[in-house]
Amino acid sequence: MNLNIQMVDTKSQFLKIKEEIYKGFEEVFESSQFINGKQVKEFTEALKSFTRAKHIIPCANGTDAIQVALMALGLEPGDEVIVPTWTYVATAEVIALLKLKPIFIDADYNTFNIDVNKIEEKITSKTKAIVPVHLYGQTCEMEKIMELAKKYNLFVVEDTAQAIGSEYTFSDGAVKQAGTIGNIGTTSFYPSKNLGAYGDGGAIYTNDDDLAVRLKGICHHGELGVKYYHDIVGCNSRLDTLQAVILNAKIKRLKDYETSRNEVADFYDNALKEMDWIETPFRSKNSTHVFHQYTMKIKNGQREALKTYLQEKEIPSMIYYPMPLHFQKAYAMHYNASYDLSISEKLSKEVLSLPIHTEMTESQLHYIVETIKNF
Fold first, then answer.
1. Could you tell me if 299 and 278 are in contact, meaning their C-beta atoms sit under 8 angstroms apart?
2. CA 131 to chain CA centroid, nearest Å
3. Strand 155-159 vs strand 80-84: parallel, antiparallel, or unpaired?
4. Buried (b) or exposed (e) across 24-38, using 16+ Cβ within 10 A?
5. Whole-angstrom Cα distance, residue 336 to residue 345?
6. Do the domain assignments include residue 159?
């Protein structure tokens, strides 16, 4: 049976909005404003409204967003930055590129996010920042992280590339979106993301006026207001106008996309809940889930066999991630063997993500769960 099941079906999503995108492309070509065109400004305002952030600085990609954020904080080589070991490499990559030292923290077994109970013991006089990653679509325990940041005078840079739109509720009832809680938030518009362009793109959030000036300046070669006058060391990181056209079309539909993903996740949850060798994703009580990934834990040591079986049945699946960062060759020098990172090591042997996107059909979903049950 070939149901053309894909991990992410960007083509089918595109077909529903292609006329709007083509019209937007035509406007860009007619204006010839390929860099910082009006569509970039329109998207910046739309993202500001969606996230409720005071300032939005668009940039070239999500990795640049984290790098620019750390550059804006004025950290010095050798400063320590706390980061989860269970995440995509980009988060630690920019820390190392800036000659900072990543301090790896284990994951929470339920949420997959950084274990907030293991952060404080790793804070030293050299610690300057915490970079929580809102993994798979759910916000980290930000209330505890912000308490630690205040206690030890640390910066917080949120990596929300996988969780745009996720809402976090504090104990006092206040609700904030992922990426708008710390000093700076960062996101990616990689095509497979919930809000994805058709190429690279990213954005930086902040509610701090002074930081906003620095962030924007760093993205534009260190210009802090006057063209060709470079006050600080910067880089070249801009969101392409054509990508902004695509993002303008999609951000209007982002809440609907989130609803569709949750419907797929609910279907999987209900269909797989009786299978004692599968643990379906945990839903945090104080965070909504936007399901960038639907990531299960396979408990019987059969993860690889299941993945192979699904592939034979023309069902894609992915392992996010096969190896924690502290085991990666490029970051071995930063691994302290005395640190307990066993949960992340355990997860690397158990996690498996099923297809989840906005265009999935009932026949595809039924076929996937029945195949798993027949394994």
1. yes
2. 12
3. unpaired
4. bbeebeeeeeeeebe
5. 14
6. yes
Q: Could you give the C-alpha distances from 46 to 28, 91, 159, 256, in angstroms and in order?
A: 18, 26, 20, 16
How many separate domains does the chain show? 2
Instruction: For tokens 């945990």, name the residue.
Output: 282
Q: Is 3 inside any structural domain?
A: no
Q: What is the mean pLDDT of each run of 10 residues along the chain (375 residues)?
A: 90 97 97 95 98 98 98 97 97 96 97 98 98 98 98 98 98 98 98 98 98 97 92 96 98 98 98 95 97 97 97 98 96 87 98 97 98 96
* pTM of this structure: 0.96
Distance of CA 336 to the CA centre of its chain: 26
Q: d(Cα 375, Cα 372) in Å, to the nearest integer?
A: 5
Maximum alpha-carbon separation in the chain: 65
301 and 359 share a domain? yes
Read off the CATH number of the domain in which 309 is found. Answer: 3.90.1150.10
User: Domain check: are 238 and 335 in the same one?
Assistant: no
Instruction: Give the pLDDT of residue 1.
Output: 63
251, 285, 310 - which closes a domain: 251
Rg (CA), the chain: 21
Question: Domain of 356?
Answer: 254-373
Count the alpha carbons within 13 Å of 339 in the hemisphere toward its beta carbon.
Answer: 25
How many CB atoms are located within 10 Å of the residue 123 CB? 17
- Dihedral pair phi/psi, residue 188, rounded to 5°: -125, 145
Instruction: Give me the amino acid identity at 191.
Output: P
- Fill in the DSSP letter of residue 296: E
Which of 201, 216, 251 lies at the terminal end of a domain, its last residue? 251
The whole-angstrom separation of Cα 222 and Cα 200 is 22
Q: Which residue has the tokens 């409204």?
A: 49
The enclosing domain of 244 has a CATH number of 3.40.640.10
